[in-house]
Amino acid sequence: MRVVPVTVDVIASPTGTITVSCTPPTATVDPGASNVLLTFTLATSGYRFKKTKAIAMDVPADDFPYASWTINDTTAALYDSNKIADKLKYTVTVVNNTTGKHYAIDPEIQNGGGGGGGAEDC
User: Fold this and answer.
1) Can you tell me whether residue 121 is helix, strand or coil?
2) Measured between alpha carbons, how far is residue 48 from residues 52, 54, 71, 112 in Å?
3) Hey, which of 1, 38, 52, 101 would disulfide with 78, CB 3.0 to 4.6 Å?
């Protein structure tokens, strides 16, 4: 699969605690897939993705040579060359439209590795 969808939800508890969740919590990239696009859809109204770096790798990794891009308030994407099999943490950040406060979660990407291509093929 060359497109890996991730749904992002924001949940407010009765006490006011805000939690961000991703489905799936670990985005799996198939072994051998190359030039993969991880797409993120924000499913909760009243929030938006940051305009830049809404999706950011916790530690720089060669499989992610570009910063994510925010396509619109509720859609963001991240390129993955998937050359190296590894489990990597990343951060998803959303912004409350009313308060401007940022909320984040640190889910994972499981790269299967073996993907050809890469930045030079784009």
Assistant:
1) helix
2) 11, 9, 11, 30
3) 38
Name every residue whose Cβ is closer than 8 Å to that of residue 92 and which is 6 or more positions away in sequence: 8, 20, 22, 40, 54, 55, 104, 105, 106, 107
Task: Tell me whether the omega of the peptide bond preceding residue 107 falls within 30 degrees of 0, making it cis.
Answer: no
- Give residue 116's pLDDT: 73
Contact 33, 110 (CB under 8 A): no
Domains annotated on the chain, with CATH:
3-111 (2.60.40.420)
Q: What pLDDT does residue 1 have?
A: 73
